[in-house]
Amino acid sequence: MQSIINSIIKNRNLIIYIILSLVTFNSLYKTSSVHYNGIGKIGTYLSGKSSFFSSFIYSYFDLKDKNQRLIDENFELKKIELKYKNQAFPDKSLESNLITNASVILNSINKSKNIIVIDKGKNGGINAEMGVITSEGVIGIIKSVTDNYASIISLLNTDLKVNAILKNSSTIGSISWDGLNSKILKLNDIPLSSSIKIGDTIVTGGMSFYFPKGIPIGAIINYDNSSLEGYYDIDVSVFNDFSSLSNLYILERTDNDEIKNLLND
Amino acid sequence: MTRGFLRNITFYTTVLVFQLLIFNHLKIFDFITPFLYLIIFILYKTSHNKTILIILGFITGIIVDLSMQTYGCNTFATITICYLREWIEKYSFGVNSNLPLAMIKGTPLINRLTFFGLIILIHSLIYNSLIFFNIEVLGTIIFSTLTNSIVTFIIIWLISQLISNK
Description:
The complex is a heterodimer. Chain A has 5 helices and 12 strands. Chain A is α+β, with helices and mostly antiparallel strands. Chain A folds into 2 domains: 60 residues, no CATH class; 201 residues, Rod shape-determining protein MreC, domain 1 (Thrombin, subunit H, Beta Barrel), CATH 2.40.10. Chain A has a 6-stranded antiparallel beta barrel. In chain A, strands 6-7-8-11-10-9 form a 6-stranded antiparallel barrel. The longest helix of chain A has 29 residues. By secondary structure, chain B is mostly helical. Chain B has one domain. Chain B is built from 6 helices and no strands. The two termini of chain B are 23 Å apart. In chain B, 33% of the residues are buried. At the A-B interface, helix 2 and helix 3 of A face helix 3 and helix 4 of B.
């Protein structure tokens, strides 16, 4: 207490100066319209800046909630998109249902057989052999499922081949990974008679149990037509960045069971 | 009540009366109003209390503001120079700043010029900034500050020389 009083006495001139300045500015604010407007503007500017700063800080605290809300919203929109596609284009190869969305909890891109693990399993409605996508394109296929987790064979797995077509010409091929560059896939089985060019988009072909037709995979960045086997050697730049996956959507073809039964008979 | 105190009161009142009755109505080149009353704060003896100086500045500022209809611009400019006077003294006079009446007698001319000039310039800058209160007229603020400071400086310098000769 004594030190506070000493401090006040020591700084009395500053305190008196501040008090008298406030009195003066109060008088300016109340009696002069020019200063009333000017000080009002400064006040608005300062309060605007400070609330911007505080909201900027506070926005970090609820980023997780906001992110979850966006994921949920995205999921609902994705469902609507697929529903619309199913209705607008009555083509069996396009039909699929979005089952759920899930977060990646384990991911790798530096092996030849990369696996992704997600935080949902049977309890979330996921079964083996369902397709996995993001808003950018194909990710892989569900390999095995436990109650709460599921593993995915990533496109960056040398064991996986996905049926693919050139979006413009509908030439059928298959996409796979050669285990070298995590951003480049190989498009196989495209005959030299087909017309291709750099920049052509590759999408899923719809001729598999996993993906409906038309889900983006990547774009051609390079091709070699000197092969003696009669097929192009095509490099495809993949749309997804596999090193920064976070939220995935799981889908399944609507008519899978019927086709499988047919094949078993 | 010493003779010195009565002399100071007389000096203060005379300066203020001159300011209110003559200099407030003086419009040199239509826009320059010299602030003679700043001489009070320039000649205020350093050995006196700084708190009293600030309060004196506040009262003087209010009186001038009321007569000039400037709402508080003079008051704020005056209390600011009263508050800053200690630093201005130290900057202007250096080691001699603690000597009584150091600013009037026995110090180099350049020190006195700096002291007078800084007090008048700072006051004028604050006053004009508050009067215009608009960054878009910065050029006008600087021009008014400079012209006002020069005229005020000349008047205060001449009067202070007369006083010191007496």
